[in-house]
Specification:
This protein is an alpha/beta fold and 515 residues long. Helices cover 35% and strands 12% of the residues. It has helices at residues 7-25, 35-39, 51-65, 126-130, 155-159, 171-175, 201-205, 217-224, 248-258, 267-284, 298-307, 321-332, 346-351, 366-375, 394-397, 404-416, 430-441, 469-480, 497-502; strands at 98-100, 111-115, 136-139, 142-145, 165-169, 181-183, 189-191, 211-213, 230-234, 262-265, 292-293, 337-342, 362-365, 423-428, 448-453. The strands form 6 sheets. A 4-stranded parallel sheet has the order 10-9-12-13, with helices on both faces. A 3-stranded parallel sheet has the order 11-15-14. Strands 1-8 form a two-stranded antiparallel sheet.
């Protein structure tokens, strides 16, 4: 849960910090085998039934933080086995990006209807009356469910006046909008990677921290320590992520303290993306396409193309803000490396595509970056003031919240064609996104601009965020007020869009980049 500092958060932070410290110090990566004892000291377990289990789980988390895969529990191997292949700037993720540490999984029931002690044994007993399978009876004055008969329809849950009947679901499966999580033969969570779009909602929803995503902290720091200039491109969801001391004038010095050459906000790319999508919408809807859907959320885009392949051409072909911003920098500094820093697990998957890797070299979440700040002992309040990031528009920054992308695109269209009416539908969370596309397929949204966000709330609710979602939303609104420009067309970058569309850093056509 974002914003809740729990034992789960603490261990994740310790792991990211130790990986970063190991990289900055230039320690032998065999130190991975020692780190579980440093992170989980002593002889008595603090979180689980065994300290050995706790250390084993930490060991797997260390491996994935290095970009390596989870080990086969049935075979003996060291935590550091295969680490040599990861000790390079060129190391990328071994698929899958998101996976389950099996022995950390609690084997939660997939779906269960339970009667709690709140049952009053009432005279009306509506739970019995509404059950279509006659699975509920009264025993010693209390309702009891025959689980062999129960079909988990939930009618009894809805009917109980005391809220004494609950539906208990596996949290990771409930959060998965792709229905990609099931139980294996031992009752543990198992991800169907053919369905998974790496949104990361299962990762943040698992209370046992059994689901993990691979990282590039170590590889990023190797690049930072090299002679090659490394630029950070920062998603607008950064608003408020690192607390009140990370003021706008501290962002650039904070990144430079880690070794970055400079920082550019991805909201500049969002401005360009909004302009491109506006042009595409005006040209293609409804003459060529029944509707057009935004492209900036990779998990939403991937879901749409997986589940509605006949409408894949209705997903905008505009480059994402991340890629447009990276192109903007590599146009000026072709020999640099670029690190996208943001809230999104799916951006890691997007950046791993062959064509995108020409522009974006590494991806870090805010959580992972926080570990780097801790490893370098960066205290934001003690940093000198730097030049704030103010080149984007408020609408570009608004991409970070649900509804913001569509709003920016509509504002561009209104400027280009004031007489044109633009109808908008938006959805947040992949389950609702799926419903929206089903309605679009049925013709309900002909002529519409559709905005999809995989994370409920938008990017400010991404799997790699730190702060509570509501707090991040307030911080984002404050950050939008800091800029000089209100709308995307007001910035100086609009004239560069055509150049960036034609810019071929590695001679790849951008149509492949959103595939």
């Amino acid at each position: 849960m974002r914003g809740l500092y729990s034992s789960k958060t603490k261990i994740r932070h310790q792991i990211f910090t130790e990986i970063a410290r190991m990289a900055y110090n230039g320690d032998d990566c065999k130190k991975l085998d020692e780190l579980p004892y440093q992170i989980i000291p002593g002889e008595i377990a603090s979180y689980r039934e065994s300290i050995f289990l706790e250390r084993a789980i930490v060991g797997e988390r260390l491996r994935v933080a290095m970009g390596m895969s989870i080990r086969n529990v049935a075979e003996h191997s060291l935590i550091s086995q295969g680490v040599e292949a990861s000790v390079t700037e060129e190391k990328y993720y071994e698929p899958p990006l998101i996976d389950v540490i099996k022995f950390a999984c609690h084997s939660c029931p997939e779906k269960n209807i339970m009667i709690t002690n709140g049952c009053q044994g009432c005279l009306e007993h509506p739970c019995i009356e509404v059950c279509p399978k006659h699975a509920i009876s009264m025993v010693n004055g209390r309702s009891v469910i025959d689980q062999d008969k129960c079909v988990k329809c939930g009618k009894c849950v809805e009917s109980c006046p005391y809220n004494a009947i609950i539906r208990q679901e596996r949290p990771c499966a409930k959060a998965c909008g792709m229905d990609a999580i099931r139980s294996d033969e031992n009752g543990r969570a198992c991800i169907d990677h053919e369905k998974c779009v790496s949104c990361g909602m299962c990762l943040v929803s698992c209370p046992f921290s059994a689901i993990v995503d691979k990282g590039q902290i170590y590889q990023t720091i190797l690049a930072l320590k090299s002679d090659v200039p490394v630029y950070a491109i920062v998603a607008p969801a950064v608003a408020g992520q690192f607390g009140p001391e990370m003021k706008p004038e501290k962002i650039r010095p904070a990144f430079q303290a880690l070794g970055f050459k400079d920082v550019v906000e991805v909201a500049t790319g969002a401005d360009l993306c909004a302009i491109e999508e506006a042009k595409d919408f005006m040209e293609e809807v409804p003459e060529k396409l029944p509707f057009m859907a935004t492209s900036c959320c990779p998990a939403w885009s991937m879901m749409a193309k997986k589940m509605f392949p006949d409408y894949a051409n209705c997903i905008s072909m505009a480059l994402t803000p991340m890629v447009l911003t990276a192109r903007l920098i590599k146009r000026k500094h072709p020999d640099c490396k670029i690190v996208f820093v943001g809230p999104c697990a799916a951006k890691k998957l997007e950046a791993s595509r062959r064509t995108i890797r020409s522009y974006v070299d590494f991806v870090l979440t805010f959580e992972e970056l926080q570990g780097m700040f801790s490893a370098k002992n960066v205290v934001f309040g003690e940093l000198p003031d730097g030049k704030p990031l103010k080149e984007s528009s408020a609408d570009g920054r608004g991409f970070a919240a649900s509804g913001g992308v569509a709003k920016a695109v509509v504002n561009v269209i209104k400027r280009m064609d004031p007489e044109r009416e633009v109808k908008v539908a938006s959805a947040q969370g992949l389950k609702d996104c799926k419903k929206m596309l089903q309605a679009a397929k049925a013709g309900k949204y002909n002529g519409y601009l559709l905005e999809g966000m995989a994370c409920p709330g938008g990017c400010i609710a991404g799997a790699g965020t730190i702060q509570p979602i509501k707090k991040s939303a307030v911080s984002l609104e404050s950050m939008k007020k800091e800029v000089v420009f209100q709308e995307c067309l007001d910035t100086k970058y609009g004239d560069l869009l055509e150049d960036l569309e034609n810019f071929e850093y590695f001679a790849e056509e951008h149509q492949d980049e959103n595939a």
